[in-house]
């Protein structure tokens, strides 16, 4: 139901904004390869794990002491809960969509909305990752890479190592 | 080149996070209608304007006193420029992609990156709208609407007016 492009965006946003890994319940075969290619070029060791059962991902996360945060426009406003989320040692963020089983709402520790308006799971995920990390994720160093951007006021400045 | 789904996300994120309007250089015929339906159900008067010339949009924005902010992974880090952006009266945010003409980099007042990593124009737009408005956009009231969500710890609570 969710298209290839949206899944790719969810993977790359998670990686760029400091997540360790993503679990994809559905996937296209090219996505893990695409993300691996991004790691090779741009650094880091972000992982894509495919076709797990959502139940086992949630229960394993809880057993590791993670708080489970489900993003939904029906949930509690991010700004009311962000301090609590920042206090959690580790998080599992669940991004679903209209077809999420009702049990996900109940098994999650938090149901969180980024506005109560319909928009984009990609945007909601980005803002939650950004807020939970207080913007520090924007300064993350991805370590050894073959490509590296030198930020520029105008134009494109890429260094190849 | 940009798919329907991505354009829809860009429209809905802009609307949900407080923009007044979006200009789409390319569009699918259903998108303005989809966004109009969202306005009818969820409130507000966000506008979708289709097929303008990017040159005229930028020059008109400048003549209105807007600062033009082009989002690109090659640009200056958001965190280094956000105070300046917050000081601007009004902004035009340009979201392009790989095929953006080089002139856009030069005609923009700012080229801004949300990390120098490849990810998603939807996520970059969301974080920039969020930072420029200091998170105040999350509290926005969309006025009269036929559907309204009452945020809930668990489940879905929608009010129909």
Structure, briefly:
Chain A is α/β, with parallel strands linked by helices.
Give a structural overview.
- Two copies of one chain form a homodimer.
- Helix content of chain A is 40%, strand content 21%.
- The first copy, chain A, has a three-stranded parallel β-sheet with strand order 4-3-5. In chain A, strands 1-2 form a two-stranded parallel sheet. A two-stranded antiparallel ribbon of chain A has the order 6-7.
- In chain A, 37% of the residues are buried.
- In chain A, helix 1 (4-16) packs parallel to helix 2 and helix 1 (4-16) runs parallel beside helix 6.
- The longest helix of chain A has 13 residues, at 4-16.
- The model of chain A has no long low-confidence stretch (mean pLDDT 95).
- Chain A has helices spanning 4-16, 30-42, 54-63, 78-87, 102-107, 121-132, and strands spanning 21-24, 47-50, 67-77, 91-95, 110-113, 147-149, 158-160.
- With 161 residues, chain A is of the alpha/beta class.
- Chain A is globular.
- The first copy, chain A, is built from six helices and seven strands.
